[in-house]
Design goal:
The chain is of the alpha/beta class. The protein is built from 6 helices and 5 strands, in the order βαβαβαβαβαα. The protein binds D-ribose.
Length: 150
Amino acid sequence: MNKSQSPIIIGSDHAAYPLKEKVKLFLLEQGIKIQDAGTHSEESVDYSDFGIKVASAVSTQEFQRGILLCGTGLGMSMVANRFPHVRAALCNDVFSAKMSREHNDANILVLGGRLIGDILAFELVRTWLDTPFEGGRHQGRLDKFDKIPQ
Ligand code: RB5
């Protein structure tokens, strides 16, 4: 993975806290800087609070990329995609992770911590970070929904 990758903001709820910690270590081992937006334990919290923290930081371009995890990934996807210029992609398979970058220029990767194991999560993160956006016809498609009033 590219060590010059811009820093990544990462957040989860309690359900995916164990996987978040493992993904954090994986990123750090690859030399990628991270900011951990929480949560910091398996004590029950509201996923929305952490989705808002990460998605707002990506929306304002404080961070170029973010990773969100909750039990299924569904709640985090719903929250994150409310923010302007956020394209959050729930990817629990490698093909989706690749396509979410090539065709959709996803800027937040969402993972379901209760659905996938550590090794698959690392492969999803690696694929997502290493795959460039193809641009071209796909840019025009993104522009159309980026213009929808919030
Ligand atoms: C928490 O129990 C669970 O609802 C949450 O992690 C997530 O799956 C929501 O979409």
